[in-house]
Amino acid sequence: MNNYLENLDEKIKKYFKILSKEFPEFLNDYINTSEMQKQARISVSCGTIYSKMYNQMRYSSLDHSVAVALIIWNFTKDKKQTLSGLFHDIATPVFKHSIDFMNKDYEKQESTEELTTKIISESL
Q1: Residue 44 clears pLDDT 90, i.e. is over it
Q2: Closest Cα partner for 63 from 120, 1, 7?
Q3: What are the backbone angles phi and psi of residue 24, rounded to the nearest 5°?
Q4: What does the alpha-carbon distance between residue 66 and residue 106 come to, in Å, rounded to a whole number?
Q5: pTM (2 decimals)?
């Protein structure tokens, strides 16, 4: 099984160490699912990474989700809450929360929650 941390950019590894001194090994089982791996191909930059205007490091939706999980783990040491953080964007489309504006749901950002529930329940 692929170890997510081994393939990370060193800058992201350093950032993750700030968020949590430890990386809970149980996360790897969930990170390596196809549902989470598709997030590795989605940038959180909403397309600006393709512009010559910005000099950005590649930071994927998967990296963002792991970062959220690490923050939660750091403060709670609770597996369920940590996994909720990991999965929080699993149904968010490529251009991230712009769909919330299209669905007139930009304040609560709940328009993709039903799809999140479906993805999680189908993968368990």
Answers
A1: no
A2: 7
A3: -65, 120
A4: 23
A5: 0.75
In the structure encoding, which two tokens stand for residue 65, read together? 């989700």
User: Nearest-CA neighbor of 5 among 44, 31, 38?
Assistant: 31
Do 41 and 60 form a contact (C-beta atoms < 8 A)? yes
With beta carbons less than 8 A apart as the criterion, state whether 12 and 18 touch: no
Sequence-ordered list of residues with C-beta below 8 angstroms from that of 17, at least 6 positions apart, any chain: none
Q: Which tokens sit at 11?
A: 């800058």
Q: 3-class DSSP state for residue 91?
A: coil
Scan for tokens 């919330």, then name that residue.
Answer: 100
User: Please, is 84 exposed, middle or buried when counting C-beta atoms within 10 Å of its C-beta (0-12, 13-18, 19+)?
Assistant: middle
For residue 1, the model assigns a pLDDT of: 44
The answer to whether 45 and 99 have CB atoms below 8 angstroms apart is: no
What counts of helices (H) and strands (E) characterise the chain?
A: 7, 0
